[in-house]
Design goal:
The chain is 34% helix and 27% strand. By secondary structure, it is an alpha/beta fold. It has 2 domains: 175 residues, Acetylglutamate kinase-like (Carbamate kinase); 148 residues, VC0802-like. A hairpin with a 3-residue loop joins strand 17 and strand 18. The protein is globular and about 80 Å long. The protein starts with a strand and ends in a 5-residue tail after the last helix. The relative contact order is 0.10. One of its GO terms (molecular function) is aspartate kinase activity.
Length: 412
C-alpha cells in the first residue's frame, strides 16, 4: 500500500472554490491506486469566520490560560477536517477522519508551541484499511495527560511530516500558494528560478535565514526521519520542488548556490574596550541566554592593553532586553562605551557548492561593496555565507547576489 500524505493550508481550505482544487489533487492520488492522508489547516485567514485568528479574536485572551487558548485554537482544524471529510464523501469516495486522540501526535507541555515527543500511526493505518482517504487535523497534538496542545506557527507542516514518518508514507506533499522553492523571493528578485530539488541542509539554512516556504522544524524532522517533502502549488498542476537528503540530489541543480534570502529585523551591539578578565564575555552570553535571547553572530577583537571589543547580532525586537542585561552587568563589563545599531538586515547566500569552491566569500563581499552596500559583520559555514548590512539595502543585495551567482551561472 503506497501512502501519500498531503498538507493543505488555509488558502486551500478557505472556501468551496479553493477546496474543489484541493480535491482534484486528492482524487489524483486515489485514481493512481494510492492511499491519501490529508492534513488540513483551519479554513482561511483572519477575518474568515472559521480561521484560527478569527476564533481567537472573539475571546478576551488575557483571561484564558495557555491550555485554554490551545483548546480554542485547535477548533479551526477540527472543523476543517469534518467539512472536508463530508464534502469528499459526498463525491462518492471512501473517506474517514481522525480526532486529536487518533492523530497519534504526543507532545510536551509547552502550550501554544509544543514540541513533538512521539508520533504513532496505528489509528490512521487502521482507517486506511477501509478508506482510501483519511482527513487529519493539522497544527495539534496532545500531551501525556491527553490534553490538547498546538504546535505553533507552521505547525501543520510539522504535523504532516510527523504523520508521514509514523505511517511509512512514500512522501509528504506540502501544498501552498507557490509552486515550489525558488532561488530567491520572486517578489523581490523577478528572475528567480524554481528549483527541482534542494537538500534538507540547504532548506534549513534558507528557512532559518528568511525563506517562508517551509517551517524549519518540519525540515529538521524530515531530515531526521528521511521523509521526502514535495512542495507544490494548490492552484496549479505540475511538479514542484523536492526536499531530500544530499545523497539523493544527483547533481540536479546546475548552480553552486541554491538560494539567496534576506531578513530586515536584526540589531548590532558593540561593547568597546571591555577588560579581558574572568570570562566576562561568557558571562554576558549566559545572561543574554537566560533572558530568552539568541545571539546570532558574535565577534571579539583584542585591542591591546588587556582590552577587547565585543560585537553581537540579535533580533531587532530583543534590543531592550539585551540592553537591560548589559546595563545590569556594567560593573563587571566596564565598557568604555556601548554602541547600539538597530535597523540591521541580513542577506544570506546558501548552497552545497560553497564547501567545494574557493573565493565564495570574496565574491559575496565584493559584489556588495562594489555596489556601495557596506558589510558590517559576516558569518560563514560550509553552505551559508551571511552578511549583515543596512536593512534598506537588503532587497537590492538579493538582486545583485542572485545576478552574480545564479543568473550569470559562473562556475568558480
Amino acid at each position: 500500500m503506497r501512502i501519500i500524505v498531503q498538507k493543505y493550508g488555509g488558502t486551500s481550505t478557505r472556501n468551496r472554490e479553493t477546496r474543489s482544487m484541493m480535491y482534484d489533487n486528492i482524487i489524483d492520488v486515489v485514481n493512481a491506486k494510492n492511499k491519501a492522508v490529508v492534513v488540513v489547516s483551519a479554513m482561511g485567514r483572519y477575518d474568515d469566520p472559521y480561521a484560527t485568528d478569527t476564533l481567537l479574536s472573539v475571546v478576551r485572551k488575557k483571561y484564558l490560560n495557555d491550555e485554554e487558548i490551545d483548546r480554542l485554537s485547535s477548533i479551526g482544524e477540527t472543523l476543517a477536517t469534518l467539512v472536508i471529510k463530508s464534502e469528499l464523501a459526498s463525491l462518492g469516495y471512501r473517506v474517514a477522519s481522525v480526532s486529536n486522540e487518533e492523530l497519534g501526535i504526543m507532545t510536551d507541555d509547552s502550550f501554544t508551541c509544543a514540541s513533538i515527543e512521539a508520533a504513532e500511526g496505528e489509528a490512521i493505518l487502521k482507517k486506511l484499511e477501509e478508506a482510501d482517504i483519511v482527513i487529519a487535523p493539522g497544527f495539534q497534538g496532545h500531551n501525556k495527560e491527553h490534553v490538547i496542545t498546538t504546535l505553533g506557527r507552521g505547525g501543520s507542516d510539522l504535523s504532516a511530516v510527523a504523520i508521514g514518518a509514523a505511517i511509512g508514507a512514500s512522501e509528504v506533499e506540502i501544498y501552498s500558494d507557490v509552486d515550489g522553492i525558488y532561488t530567491a523571493d520572486p517578489r523581490i528578485v523577478p528572475r528567480a528560478m524554481r528549483l527541482d530539488m534542494v537538500s534538507y541542509e540547504e532548506m534549513l539554512e534558507l528557512s532559518n535565514n528568511g525563506a517562508k516556504v517551509l517551517n524549519h522544524r518540519c525540515v529538521v524532522l524530515a531530515a531526521k526521519t528521511g521523509i521526502k517533502i514535495h512542495c507544490c502549488s494548490s492552484f496549479r498542476h505540475g511538479k514542484g520542488t523536492y526536499v531530500v537528503g544530499e545523497e539523493d540530489m544527483k547533481d540536479i541543480n546546475k548552480f553552486a548556490i541554491s538560494g539567496i534570502t534576506g531578513t530586515q529585523n536584526e540589531a548590532r551591539f558593540t561593547l568597546v574596550g571591555v577588560e579581558i578578565k574572568n570570562n566576562v564575555a561568557g558571562n554576558l552570553f549566559k545572561k543574554i541566554s537566560e533572558a530568552g535571547v539568541n545571539v546570532n553572530v558574535y565577534n571579539q577583537a583584542l585591542t591591546g592593553g588587556g582590552h577587547m571589543d565585543i560585537s553581537i547580532i540579535t533580533q531587532q525586537e530583543d534590543i531592550d532586553t539585551v540592553l537591560a542585561v548589559i546595563n545590569n552587568m556594567k560593573q563587571e563589563l566596564q565598557p568604555k562605551r556601548t554602541i547600539v545599531r538597530g535597523n540591521i538586515g541580513k542577506v544570506a547566500v546558501v548552497g552545497l557548492g560553497i564547501r567545494n569552491r574557493q573565493g565564495m566569500f570574496e565574491k559575496v563581499y565584493n559584489t556588495l561593496e562594489n555596489n556601495n552596500i557596506h558589510v558590517e559583520m559576516a558569518s560563514c559555514s560550509e553552505i551559508n555565507i551571511s552578511c549583515y548590512i543596512d536593512r534598506n539595502d537588503v532587497n537590492d543585495a538579493q538582486v545583485l547576489l542572485h545576478e552574480a551567482f545564479i543568473e550569470n551561472n559562473e562556475e568558480d
